[in-house]
Design goal:
Layout: H1 2-6, E1 11-20, H2 22-39, E2 48-57, H3 58-69, E3 75-84, E4 92-96, H4 100-113, E5 124-128, H5 134-147, E6 155-165, E7 177-183
Antiparallel strand pairs: 1-2, 1-6, 3-4, 3-6, 4-5, 6-7
Helix pairs in contact: 2-5, 3-4
Length: 187
């Protein structure tokens, strides 16, 4: 009994993702597959990171997620451009318009998780993860617009959030798994 009291629950890295509807998921997945065939990188589900990686026990993560979902409404996300970043998990992505609803969803969920980001929230949906050169990123960005000419004007409802186990050390993303999700409704 003494050992149980002294042991702490197992912790993992978790993230909260906004998931696109199935039609948008399929469209973005096709674009991701086309880019990955030329530029490489791991396969992962299309998503908007709402809360970045945070280290929690399983029970705590699920409880905080359920609490965050309560009262959160569905919202619309709109693509501004295909953009590139400076690190592996933001290699080539769809930059989303930081509308009040998009920013508030992240702020709301982050507060429930006690998550503090060192930089301001940049809503985006990654297309490929990787460590590729700036020249390759530029080519990938151009190819994205060729593969899906209207991707820069995509606007879609976000009606589902998901809690994912996302070990940030696993660049293959093979260990990443959905734990639970919740439906959001428009008010």
């Amino acid at each position: 009994m003494e050992g149980e009291r002294g042991s702490s629950p197992t912790k993992h890295w978790y993230s909260v993702w906004a998931l696109p509807s199935d039609d948008v998921r399929d469209r973005v997945k096709t674009l991701m597959d086309g880019l990955r065939s030329e530029f490489g990188g791991p396969e992962f589900e299309p998503h908007i990171t709402v809360v970045g990686a945070i280290y929690l026990s399983d029970e705590d993560a699920v409880q905080k997620f359920r609490s965050a979902c309560d009262g959160l409404k569905a919202y619309t996300a709109t693509v501004e451009s295909v953009s590139t970043g400076t690190f592996f998990y933001q290699c080539v992505f769809l930059l989303l318009h930081p509308s009040p609803e998009v920013v508030e969803a992240s702020s709301h969920c982050s507060s429930h998780f006690g998550y503090k980001n060192s930089s301001s929230y940049m809503p985006h949906m990654s297309l490929i993860y990787g460590d590729i050169t700036d020249e390759e990123k530029k080519k990938a960005r151009e190819k994205a617009v060729i593969l899906d000419e209207s991707i820069n004007s995509l606007s879609f409802p976000v009606t589902r959030l998901a809690l994912y186990k996302t070990d940030v050390g696993d660049k293959t993303t093979k260990s990443w798994e959905k734990v639970t999700d919740c439906e959001l409704i428009f008010s």
